[in-house]
Amino acid sequence: MGAGDCVCIIGTNTTACHPVIGLGMMQAKRNGAQLIVIDPREIDLAREADVWLRLRPGTDTPLLSAIAGEIYNAGMVDVESVAASTEGFKEFCEGLAKFDAESVAALSEVAADDIRRAARCIGRARNTAFYYTMGVTQHTTGTNNVLAVSNLALLTGNIGRPKTGVNPLRGQNNVQGSCDMGALPNVLTGYRSVTNDDVRGSFEEAWNVTIPAEKGRTIPEMLNAIEEDKMKGLFVFGENPMRSDPDINHVEHCLHHVEFLVVQDLFLTETAELADVVLPGASFAEKDGTFTSTERRVQRIRAAVSPVGDSKPDWKILAELLERLGRPERYADVKDVFDEMRMLTPTHTGITYERLEAGGIQWPCPDESHAGTPILHVGNCMRGAGKFVPLEHREPAELPDAEYPLTLTTGRVVAHYHTATMTRRCFGLAGTWPEELVEVHPADAAEYGIADGDLIELRSRRGVATGRAWVTRRVPRGLVFMTFHFSESPANILTTSAADPVTGTPQLKVCAVAIRKLTEESTSVESLSIEEHASCHIA
Amino acid sequence: MHPFVLSDPSRCIGCRACEIACVDAHMDEDMVEAGNKELPFSPRISIVHEAEVTAPVQCRQCEEAPCVAACPAGAVVSEGDTVRVETERCCGCKACMAACPVGAMQVAVIPGKIKTPVAHKCDLCTGREKGPACVEVCPAGALRVFGREDLQRIPVSKRRQSASQLAGYN
Amino acid sequence: MPHRLNPFILATASKCIGCRACELACAAAHIEGGVSVGSLQAPLSPRLYLTCVGEMRVPVGCRHCEDAPCAAVCPNAAIYRTDRGVQVDESRCVGCKTCIVTCPVGAMEMGQIWENGKPVMRRVANDNSPEGSEMEPALLASKCDLCKDRAGGPACVEACPEQALALIYPDAIKRRRNIQAALALKGTGARAGEVL
C-alpha cells in the first residue's frame, strides 16, 4: 500500500503480536499510506499514526459508528452504488444519528475533531484496509464491534478489492485452519451449520455414524455444564485454560469437578497437572500436515525432527483412540485425513497435497483447476447483498468503581506466545522478557506510591495476582495492562468470564481492579556464605 | 575513529531480535544448550520500549571514552576498532556505568568462568565474520554500522549539500 | 526492578567545595551513640576521603564492587558481599591490610571500630605496665558500609551542603540514560543537568 491508501488498525498491537505484518504496515506508512490506530494504549504503531484514537476500552462500536456517521454526513459515500449492492442501508444510516461525534467523544474520551480527522482519512482514501484482533473481539460487545468494522467497510466500499477488506489477524498459528475444520461448537468443516441436514448427511454417510443435530457448547457453557453435572468428561487439546481462560479460580473449580479430564499437550501445563490422563502431543517441528495462515492460505508443513520420547502427532493420537474405540480402518497417514476432509468440504475440494507442493493455496478452491481465492467478496459479497447491521452501544460488563478504581486490559508481548508454555522454555525469548511487567501510568503509580520495578498486587472481585510495575505512559491514566504469559502472575485470575452473547468470547479486555505496592524481601544479591567465601583465591 | 552501531527509532518495532542475537553471538554454547545449562542471558544492547520511543541503545565506542577514564582497574581500554573491556581485570565497581552517558555499559554475570557480575558492552562482534549480529538479524533495517569510511564521507557530503544550498543565497 | 547491582556513593567533583562535612558526618555516624561537640574521645575515622588533586577536590569511597577484590584477598573471610553492599565483619578481621593493597580506588583503611559503645581493643606489650601489656584501640578494616543501620540512609549524603554526594543505583541510572539516549536519537533532545 502507498500514497492514497489507508491502513486502519483497531485493537491490534500489530508490531508486537504480528511483527511481520506490523513491519508491512510500517513499510506502507513509509510508502505514503495513511495510518489510523484505534487503541487505548500508546502501542508502537500509535506513534507512527496519522490519527491515533485513544478510546476508552469498550467503546469501539460507538467510535466506529461515529466515524461512519461523519463520513456519511460529509457526503463521502457513494450512496447510489452502496445502496444497490447492500441491504439495510437506509436503516443503518438512520441509526447513525445517535452516534454524533460530540456525544461519542464524551463517551469514548476521543476528541470529536480526531473522530472527524479519522473520518476524512478513510473517506478520502482510495483504499482502506481494516485490521483487527482481540482488542475488538474480547468484549461482551465483540460481535457488535466486528459488525461495526464491517458496516464501516461496506459504507466506504472497502471490500472485495486489493488493499481493502475487514481483516482479522488470527491470534494463533493455524487458528484459521482449526476454525475452517469445524473446531467450533456450531459448525462442521467450511463453516457449515450442524443444523443443516444435507451437510450432516454427507458426514454421516462418510463416517457411518449419526451426528447430533444441535450445536455444541462454547467454553463458558462447557464449564457451566460441568458445574451442573451435565458434562462428565473433558478432552483439552493444546490449550491451557488454567491460564488462558478468564476467572481461573472458577476454571480450576470446574476442572477439579469434572469426572474425567484428558489433556493433550507438549508440556505438563497447569491444566495438564489437573488431568486424569495426559497425552503427549508433538510440536510443529515434529509433524506433517498443513497449517492455514491468517489469509486462508493452506500450506504444507513437514516434520523436521522426529517426535521426542513417547509423543505423537495429534492426528495419530486421535487415530489410535478411534482404533481402540472400534474404528481401526480410518487413517494410515496425514494425507488420508486431508483427502477425506477435502472430499467433504467444498471450499477445500480443489486443494491436494500434490498441488501444495508448488506452494500454498487460499480457499475457497472448489476444484483442482481452481487457482484459489486471494480476495473474498470480489464483485459482490459472498452472501449476496452486503448486510448493514444497525448497532447499539452497551457498556462493558464491569466498570471501575470506588472499590476497584482501575481498568485492567490484557494482551501479549512480542517475546511470548499465549500462556508461554513453549516460549518460556526458549533461552532467548525467556531471557529477553523474563517476567510480567504490569504497565501503570505515572500518575496512578504516584497515587499508589509505586515506583518503576516495584512488586505490585492487583485485586479484582475474582482474585489476586502479583507482578512487577512498569511505570510508563504507554497506558493512559486509570488503565493498567498485563499479559497472560506468566504462570506466577496470572492475569486471568482477575478477568471476568462475562462473555459475548453470540460467540461466548470472554471480555478479557476490560475488568475492574485495585492495585497496591507490595513490600519485597531484598533478595537482589545473594549473600555468599562465609565458608564459600573463605575459599576465594587471591586476585 | 572507532566505528559504531546506531539505531533508527523510526524503524524499530521493539521485536528484541537484536538482543537475542547479541547474546547468541557472545556465547560458545548454542541457544538450546544455553537453556539446558541455565546460562545467564546477558545482552550488550538495551531495548528502550516506551510510549515516546522504541529503540535499542548500545555503545558508541567513544573516542575519549568516559568508561575508560573512570575505570580504576584499567579494565576498559580503547584499542583498535573498539573500546574493549578486559573482563579478567574488572572487579565490578560500576564506575563505568555511572560514567557512560548513554547507559551502554552492563554489569552482570556473563557466561564463562567468572561467576560474579562484570562489565561488558558492545564489542562490534569483533572477530565475527558477518559483522555485528544485531545488525544482521534486524528485520526492520533499524540498525546500522557507521564505519570509518561513513564517518569520513558523511560530513563531506553534508558540507557539499549545504554549500549548494548556500549557493542560492545572494 | 529489584536492584540487581549494589548501590554506592558517588560524588560530583564540580559541586564539591571541600568542606569535609561528609567526612565528619561519616565518622560520627560510625561511633555508636553518636557524638556531640565536646564528647569526642577518639580520633575521627571517616570511611570516605576528601581527596585533592591540583585544583580539584572530591571525596572518594567504596564502590561496593560486584567482584570485590578486598573480599577475594581477605584470608579470614571477614569481607563479604550482602544484598546491602560489601560489608566487613570486624569480629573476623585480623588487620592483615591486604585489602588496603588490593582495593583499586583506595577505599579501605585501618580504623578504630566501635562495638557496644566502646572501641574494639587489642593487647600490646608495655613493659611499664604491671601486667607487661595494656589494651589500646585496635585498627581494623574500615570502609563505607552505606550506613546500613542508619534510618536516614548514608550520613555523608545527608550532610553535604552542596548535594555533591548521591547514593546511586547503577541499574536505575543505566535505564534512565538508555531512555534518554533513545529519545535523543529520535531527536527529542539530549539529557541535560541530570541529577544522579
Features:
heterotrimer; A: 539 residues; alpha/beta; Dimethylsulfoxide Reductase, domain 2; Rossmann fold; Barwin-like endoglucanases; 3 domains; 6-stranded mixed β-barrel; 5-stranded parallel β-sheet; 21 helices; 21 strands; 32% helix; globular; disordered C terminus; C: 196 residues; alpha+beta; two-stranded antiparallel sheet; two-stranded antiparallel ribbon; 12 strands
The CATH first-level class of the largest domain in chain A comes to Alpha Beta
The tally of helices of chain A reads: 21
How far from one another are the termini of chain C? 18 Å
Q: What is the percentage of strand-forming residues of chain C?
A: 15-25%
What is the radius of gyration of chain A? 25 Å
In CATH, the topology of the largest domain in chain A is named: Rossmann fold
Structural class of chain C: alpha+beta
Query: DSSP helix count of chain C?
Result: 5
Question: What value does the average pLDDT of chain C take?
Answer: 85
Describe this structure in words.
- The complex is a heterotrimer of chains A (539), B (170) and C (196).
- With 539 residues, chain A is of the alpha/beta class.
- Chain A is globular, with a radius of gyration of 25 Å.
- Chain A starts with a strand and ends in a 5-residue tail after the last helix.
- Chain B has a single domain, classed as Alpha-Beta Plaits (2-Layer Sandwich), CATH 3.30.70.
- In chain B, 29% of the residues lie in helices and 18% in strands.
- Chain B contains 6 helices and 8 strands.
- In chain C, strand 9 (121-125) and strand 10 (133-137) form a beta hairpin.
- The two termini of chain C are 18 Å apart.
- Chain B binds chain C through residues 6-10, 46, 48, 50, 52-57, 72-73, 90-95, 97-98, 100-108, 114, 116-118, and chain C through 4-6, 8, 10, 63-69, 104-105, 168, 170, 173-183, 185-186, 188, 191, 196.
Topology:
The complex is a heterotrimer of chains A (539), B (170) and C (196).
Chain A: E1 5-10, H1 14-17, H2 19-30, E2 34-38, H3 44-48, E3 51-53, H4 60-73, H5 79-85, E4 86-87, H6 89-95, H7 101-108, H8 112-124, E5 127-132, H9 134-137, H10 142-155, E6 165-168, H11 175-180, E7 187-188, E8 192-193, H12 197-207, H13 219-227, E9 233-237, H14 241-244, H15 248-257, E10 260-265, E11 277-280, E12 289-292, E13 297-301, H16 314-324, H17 334-344, H18 353-356, E14 361-362, E15 386-387, E16 406-411, H19 427-432, E17 437-440, H20 442-447, E18 455-459, E19 464-471, E20 479-483, E21 511-517, H21 530-534
Parallel strand pairs in A: 1-2, 1-5, 2-3, 4-15, 5-6, 9-10, 10-11, 16-20, 17-19
Antiparallel strand pairs in A: 7-8, 12-13, 13-14, 16-21, 17-20, 18-19, 18-21
Helix pairs in contact in A: 4-7, 4-8, 4-10, 7-8, 13-15
Chain B: E1 4-7, H1 17-25, H2 31-36, E2 46-49, E3 54-57, H3 66-70, E4 76-79, E5 82-85, H4 95-99, E6 106-108, E7 118-120, H5 133-137, E8 143-146, H6 148-166
Antiparallel strand pairs in B: 1-8, 2-3, 4-5, 6-7
Chain C: E1 8-11, H1 21-29, E2 49-53, E3 56-60, H2 69-73, E4 79-82, E5 85-88, H3 98-102, E6 109-112, E7 114-115, E8 118-119, E9 121-125, E10 133-137, E11 139-142, H4 155-159, E12 165-168, H5 170-185
Antiparallel strand pairs in C: 1-12, 2-3, 4-5, 6-11, 7-8, 9-10
